[in-house]
Amino acid sequence: xxxxxxxxRAEAANRKQEGGxxxxxxxxxxxxxxxxxxxxxxxxxxxxxxxEGEAKPSDYAELDIRPVPPARLAxxxxxxxxxxxxxxxxxxxxxxxxxxxxxxFPPAFLLQLPRxxxxxxxxxxxxxxxxxxxxxxxxxxxxxxxxxxxxLLAPAGPLGRVRPNRNDLRDIxxxxxxxxxxxxxxxGQAAIAVGGxxxxxxxxxxxxxxxxxxxxxxxxxxxxxxxxGVLAKCAKPQQDARADLPAIGPQTIVDAAQAGLSGIAVxxxxxxxxxxxxxxxxxxxxxxxxxxxxESDN
Length: 298
Known about the structure:
CATH architecture of the largest domain: 3-Layer(aba) Sandwich
CATH class of the largest domain: Alpha Beta
Strand order of the largest sheet: 6-13-11-9-7-8
Largest sheet: 6 strands, mixed
Number of helices: 10
Strand content: 15-25%
Order of helices and strands: HEHEEHEHHEHEHEEHEEHEEHE
Distance between the termini: 18 Å
Oligomer: single chain
Radius of gyration: 20 Å
Number of strands: 13
């Protein structure tokens, strides 16, 4: 994770002083809207680049918005520069990558095309770092969603009324170790442990698919009758914090409960809890713990 020179809240307070306009490239999920709301509170009027098939333009009806197919996002950079955009936030999910042959680029990108081709064959982190490098080569600073909305970052310790017990702590350790192992290979950010051992790892299906798979595993012979378990979500060791930090939200709590888990552990200050009040409320209602963990604790 990149070290920042000032605390996120200080950065947010000083954001308006930088002068230009900010754009939000909005994918799916709750994060883009929460970033937009934070910017509005700071006196900004963001320009929304809504990824077609992911973002809902109706969620941003009061703002300047431009729906763009994923394969043509790079063509937006010259237009953003003409609009006076000097900062850009990448927020939300993108379910699929367009085939490389369908991507369209401005002429200035041709010199960086070999780098993109190499990155396209890597995991999400490798590709996102290449994308960030290209955007910043065009004079637009990429800003992390957590820098705009620092209150989304998970604090250390239990977030709700429910606390993990001794068995849960053992599962947290096993799940976190597994999540960090696959993260170092740029495969995923999450793992599930039951009975002190990892039983399921996140792949390209994401956390939603991982929890759905866990539901089916409950009927597996080696897990039949096993109770509890923990989902851990960890930032990848080499991850650029400005894109794709781990995140959970209210639906993650519901899915974890349906998968029979006892709770969720996320990296403190390196993972986001979307709609935190509602997320904690649901966890308390369903009897799950939510824990902000520090790597030194595991």
